[in-house]
Specification:
about 400 residues, alpha/beta, Rossmann fold, eight-stranded mixed sheet, two-stranded antiparallel ribbon, globular
C-alpha cells in the first residue's frame, strides 16, 4: 500500500484533490487507516448485555476472552482509534476515542467496528485508525449514489406518483462520507484530534474499505435491478476519489435470514436471495467492468453464516403470536383460529417456553432486520471482516 506523508505541499493538495503520496523507508510504521461505511447494520444494534451469551455456545465461547477483560467488562483497544459520523436524533454526530463499546446505535451498542478494530489491533504493530460513516435507512441507488453512476432515473411508479427523490438528495451521503474521510485526514492536527500520538513523520496509509449495507435497496425492485452496477461504480469512485486505485475493498453481503433465506418460513415477501445475488455479482464482475488500474483486491464477505436462525425463530414466534393475541382480544380472530395458526407454525400453545424466553433475554436486543441486536452475530462478523482484510493485505 501507499504511505501518505504530511509535507506542507501534500496537505495543500489533500484539501483539494484527495491525497498526495511519497515513498518512505521500509522500516517505518505508518498509521493504518480503515474506512467502514453503510447504513443501519454498519451503525450496529448489538447491546453489550448480549455479550455474555457468546459464552453459552462452546464454539464461540473463546471469543469472550477477546472482547471482555479480567473483570468481565468490554475491552478497550490498545492501539486502535475510531472516529464516527452518524445520525443520532435529529442531527449528525461525530464521536471519537479508542475502539470500544459505544460506536453503534448508542453508547451501549456495537456494530462490526468493535471486533474489527480489536482484531486488526492485535494483528498489527502499527497504530490503527477506523473512520466510520453510517446512517440508518439509506440506499445505494439514491443516498450513497456514486458520481459515475449518473443521475438517478426514477421508476415509472415514482414518476406517476411524483415521488422521485430531489436532485440534491441523490448522492448526499456518498459526498458526506468522502468529506468526512478527507476532513479527518486533512493534516496532522486533524488526525491528532482522534489519534493523539500520531507521528507525522511516519505518515498514514489508507489500508482498506468495508461496505455493509443493503436493506433499503432490497425493499425496492427498481433499486435491486441497478444494485450490481451501482456497487461497481461505488468501488471505483471511492478508489479514484481517495487516489488509491488498489485500495482493498470488502462488500459485506446482507445476511438477514442466513445463507438460504428462501428456506425460511417467515417473511417470504422479501426478495432477500435476489438481492444477495446482486452483491455477489458486483464483486464477481468488478474487474471486467473497470479500467486495469482499478482491478483486484475486491472481495465479498457474507454475513449470512453469522445470523442466528434459532433466535430468529423465537423473534417470529413472539411477533406473530403477539399479533394474533391482539386480534383475538379485538374479536378479529377466534380462539380456535389462534390454535390452528400456532399448530401450523409449530408454536405450541403460543407462549414462549422458559428456555426460549431465557435465550431471547440473553441474546437479542433488536429486530430481525438489525440481526436481532445479537452480540454473537456482530462480534463474529466484525472479526470475519478483519480477518478477510488482513488476508487481502498479505497478497
Amino acid at each position: 500500500m501507499i504511505k501518505h506523508s504530511k509535507t506542507a505541499s501534500a496537505l495543500a493538495a489533500l484539501a483539494i484533490t484527495g491525497f498526495v503520496f511519497s515513498a518512505t523507508a521500509a522500516d517505518t510504521k505508518p498509521l493504518k487507516v480503515y474506512i467502514l461505511a453503510g447504513q443501519s447494520n454498519m451503525q450496529g444494534s448489538a447491546h453489550q448485555s448480549t455479550f455474555a451469551a457468546i459464552g453459552d455456545d462452546p464454539k464461540t465461547a473463546p471469543l469472550l476472552s477477546e472482547i471482555l477483560d479480567e473483570n468481565g467488562d468490554p475491552v478497550v483497544s490498545d492501539n486502535a482509534w475510531i472516529t464516527y459520523l452518524t445520525g443520532r436524533g435529529d442531527a449528525d454526530t461525530v464521536l471519537h476515542s479508542k475502539v470500544k463499546v459505544g460506536y453503534g446505535f448508542d453508547d451501549e451498542r456495537i456494530g462490526p467496528e468493535y471486533a474489527f478494530g480489536i482484531t486488526i489491533d492485535k494483528a498489527l504493530e502499527e497504530p490503527v485508525l477506523i473512520i466510520k460513516t453510517a446512517w440508518g435507512g439509506k440506499s445505494l441507488a439514491v443516498d450513497f449514489r456514486p458520481p459515475s453512476a449518473g443521475p438517478y432515473q426514477p421508476s415509472a411508479k415514482e414518476k406517476e406518483s411524483n415521488r422521485a427523490p430531489e436532485k440534491e438528495k441523490v448522492g448526499h451521503y456518498y459526498r458526506e462520507m468522502i468529506r468526512f474521510v478527507q476532513t479527518t485526514l486533512k493534516d496532522t492536527a486533524s488526525i491528532r484530534k482522534v489519534v493523539p500520538a500520531y507521528d507525522a513523520e511516519q505518515g498514514y496509509e489508507l489500508a482498506g474499505f468495508v461496505w455493509f449495507q443493503g436493506w433499503n435497496d432490497m425493499c425496492n425492485r427498481h433499486h435491486i435491478e441497478q444494485y450490481t452496477g451501482n456497487m461497481i461504480h461505488f468501488i471505483r469512485d471511492v478508489r479514484k476519489e481517495l487516489a488509491v486505485p488498489d485500495l482493498p475493498f470488502i462488500v459485506g453481503v446482507l445476511g438477514v435470514y442466513g445463507t438460504a433465506p428462501d428456506s425460511r418460513q417467515f417473511d417470504k415477501g422479501l426478495p432477500t436471495t435476489d438481492f444477495r445475488k446482486t452483491q455477489f455479482a458486483a464483486v464477481e464482475q468488478y474487474d471486467g467492468k473497470v479500467e486495469e488500474r482499478f482491478r483486484g483486491n475486491v472481495i465479498a464477505v457474507d454475513s449470512g453464516p453469522y445470523y442466528e436462525l434459532e433466535l430468529s425463530d423465537i423473534y417470529w414466534k413472539r411477533r406473530m403470536t403477539g399479533n394474533w393475541k391482539q386480534r383475538v382480544k379485538k374479536g378479529e380472530m377466534t380462539p380456535k383460529k389462534f390454535e390452528e395458526e400456532c399448530a401450523r407454525f409449530g408454536f405450541g400453545d403460543g407462549e414462549l417456553t422458559a428456555t426460549e424466553q431465557n435465550t431471547w433475554d440473553r441474546c437479542a436486543s433488536n429486530a430481525e432486520y438489525h440481526y436481532l441486536g445479537s452480540g454473537k452475530t456482530f462480534v463474529r462478523f466484525g472479526k470475519a471482516l478483519a480477518e478477510a482484510m488482513l488476508e487481502i493485505q498479505k497478497k
